[in-house]
Amino acid sequence: MARSIIWTVIFSIIAAILQSTIIGSFALFQVVPDLALCIVVFSAYVNGSMTGQVSGFFSGLLLDFLSAAPLGLNSFIRTVIGALAGLFKGSFFLDVIFMPAVLCAVATIIKALLLLVLHLIIGPAIPVYSFITSTFWIELGYNALSAPLLFLLLRKFKPILIGRG
Predict the structure, then answer these.
(1) Mean pLDDT taken over the chain
(2) pTM of the prediction?
(3) Residues paired with residue 28 on neighbouring β-strands, in sequence order
């Protein structure tokens, strides 16, 4: 379990750096896919809830240090999403296209809803998606479209990303 968590965090950080540099230069309306979130979803789905929570927490914490987000925001969101995605471990067959897209789309919706709830509780320090503008919908589409390719790539790293249990 520890090995898969460490590698998930490493891949998430690499994805976050790629998102903000290379992928960011091709962004439509300055929106990029949240590949780091999709990596946590993949790891949580194949390894279970505990791995999802821990890898979500640590990758989110490192993302908090790399971004201007309030400390703990990414950690909280990715921990919750990792726990929820891990609940589906073994529940259904993870095909090549449909299920990765659905899992990452749902994770994006949960991320937006969690940000909205935190915004309502804490206030304007928490950024929130506007569901009536295109930003959220473009990110949702990006995540859903990039998930099958990302999951296919992550399966190539099965020995280090998937735990024994």
Answers:
(1) 90
(2) 0.92
(3) 31
